[in-house]
Here is the input.
Amino acid sequence: MRSDLDEPVALRSGPRWRRQLALMPVALLFLIPLLWMISTSLKRHDQVFTWPPVLIPNPAQWHNFLDVLVKDGFGRYLLNTIALSTVVTVGTLFSATLTAYSLARVDWKWRNAAFLLVISTMLLPDFVTIIPLFSMYQKLGLVGGVPGFLPLVLPAWFGKAYFIFLMRQFMLGIPTELSDAARMDGCSELGILLRIVLPLCRPALLSVALFSIIATWSDVLQPLVYLRDEKYFTVSLGLAQFQGRYVTQWEQMLAAASVTAVPVLIVFVLAQKKFVRGISTTGIK
Here is the structure.
């Protein structure tokens, strides 16, 4: 005899596989450009526009990646971007966590007003502030060369509104009884943050880290403004330079594009479950 509990499971499982089946063509539609990019990056120049197209070239021209990374200096751009993304992500996690904890878990008089002030900065698009910021950094001698990285790093260490919002919303979902019990045991606010709140905020921390990595990895405007020397370029800025250099050599161009896109895609695929959980949980409160 079938119990009443079996019916909701059947109702849920039926539409679920239908939705997945319906989404497969959509997923394939988005995957085709990525697969075509990787396939073309492994072809010879005379195979790029052949008809019928060859999806898996034989033999694969792996030297296209070697030429891009070594001969054309794209490997240096990749190392610059990895270093920049690491420093920016660490600063983002540090500043967003401390600010969000103060706004969500510490009771002080003007915290709601401070939160509104932080959120209001999200209304300002980047192109509105980039000219006054450039003027300020130029007067400080922080444009071009190694100092040119500081304008890309410093904002992350002073908190970004969107990341503060994500962390605050997640922290609001953590029961306050846990913090109260720790205070009764003599734990300091820093101890509560490190021992109780942060371990429970791993999905939100991962979401913030992924957002920060993707934003830094794909940013073109900020490096274009502050980085003058080509040896300090990031992958996105280097890829923009490649568009003019390899206007007819599509295999080289798409090899550089693959080096730019695939690492971030792999990180996202490996962490997507916790990433989605961190984003969805921020809307609880």
Notes: The chain has two domains: 6-63, 72-281. Residues 1-13 have pLDDT under 50 and may be disordered.
